[in-house]
Amino acid sequence: MDFTPTQGQRAAAALAAEIFGDRSTPQRLAGLGGAVDAELWKTLCAAGLPGAVAETGLLGLVLMLEEQGRTTAQVPFAASCAYGLLAVEAHGNAEQRARLLPGLEDGTEVATGALAGVSGRPRVVAAGPPDAARLTGTVPVVPWLCGATLLLVPDAGRRLWLVRADAPGVGVEPVATTAPWSAGRLTLRDAPAEPLGGAADAPPPAAHDEVLGTARTAFAGLQAGVCAGALARTVAHTTTREQFGRPLAANQGVQLRAAEAYMDTEAIRVTAYEAAWRRDAGLDAAAHALTAAWWASEAGKRVVHTGQHLHGGLGADLDHPVHRHFLWGRQLDAYLGAGAELLEELGALLTKEPQG
Known about the structure:
By secondary structure, this protein is of the alpha+beta class. The chain is built from eleven helices and nine strands. The protein has helices at residues 7-23, 26-30, 38-46, 49-71, 77-91, 94-106, 206-240, 252-280, 286-310, 321-336, 339-351, and strands at residues 111-113, 125-127, 133-142, 150-154, 160-164, 170-174, 184-195, 242-243, 246-247. The strands form two sheets. Strands 1, 2, 3, 4, 5, 6 and 7 form a seven-stranded mixed β-sheet that branches. A hairpin with a 5-residue loop joins β2 (125-127) and β3 (133-142). The longest helix is centred in the middle third of the chain and has 35 residues, at 206-240. The chain is globular and about 75 Å long. The two termini are 29 Å apart. The relative contact order is 0.12.
């Protein structure tokens, strides 16, 4: 294994860091509420970053999402790339790739997915032949749904369907979540859909698990950035804030908490890197994606709680920047899946008897 980024991946991550750092400031975020930062999304697309994922792969995306997480920028970068660009590139047929990839690369198409883990699998039913299918069902929470134009929806049999957000029978209702993700409740009533891969050569249900693993890896990379940003703010605070005539960071208890948060953040990062690298290399990454998701869920909670705790009373201020990291860390934990559920799924995968 070699996680050393390529020149292209490093360049994309550096450009992402510059854009997010310049445009996604605490003052700007305070004025957005739960809305997507449309201007920032246009800037990222004009810079070619979503389109660059086709060349940098999932590892390149993870590196860019780390930079987004550091600033908690409100753009659907992870969802649109994982559920849209990478899913269509990997599992779409030639016609779908030619039709959808240009828009997903330049940002005129924004994708999201209604995929969830085992316990939270949405009950969507597909009726009719594949070339004229209709979907019916409800997905309670879909991240970035309110600004999406293209939806990736699995049916009860884990077959993946592409649905236009403005199609008849598609209902989108905003939902308030822990963090401002422009999330929504998706309701499908006899909504027209096309199978990912086409009616004749649609991918098997295993494609569902691959796309879900890709999304989990992407969101784990985002969580690594959220935690790194929270930790950076905590270090800055504890080294400048004084108590009883000396910096808070001089206290051994503060140092130990910060060190544990650093190790947790590095664990999230390295497991996300490994899962992304394996996916890009064409290797089986299912267990590694679950491992990355578990670390992002369990360790992510610990890190953002530490950041808020070590800020003392300031951490309880809803307007303080570190509180955004706390909210994002908890929301990503909820979206990735509870740690116990992920561990159960990982155990079932590892103990499954080989076929044939």
